[in-house]
Amino acid sequence: MGQGFVCKTALRAPVMLAAVLASLADARAENVVGKLGGAGDMLYAHCLSSDLYARGICLGYVEGVADAGEQEALAGASVTGASTLGIWRWCIPTGTASGQVRDIVVKFLRENPVQRHLAAAGVVASALQHTWPCRP
Q1: Distance (Å, rounded) from C-alpha 94 to C-alpha 63?
Q2: What are the structural domain ranges in the chain?
Q3: Could you read off the pLDDT of 68-102 as tens digits, one per residue?
Q4: 92 with 49: CB under 8 angstroms?
């Protein structure tokens, strides 16, 4: 009977540790993503960070906006087949790597610091439209 207790306790420790670590990771992600929804300057800082986690947040955010625009096109919201998000339209060439899309956004933010205070999603969409405008 004593061995059963030890065995159950030994199995609970890794499960508890995993649960604690997962909750910390979720809290960190929620905190960062919430801040990114506010302004392009936070997105820019994350994109330039030496921290891999922050750069991953940047890449995920940029790809999320690009994918959201593509989904609008696939859902028929765009009659031209262009990716759209609100007032922005862009046509990313087939085969473009996600890292390249991130680099375009970083370049746009570096060259247009006056726009960094704007909402991050709008800044990403504006950078995509500026770089890859749709041909009529």
Answers
A1: 14
A2: 37-131
A3: 877 665 555 554 556 656 677 888 888 889 899 99
A4: no
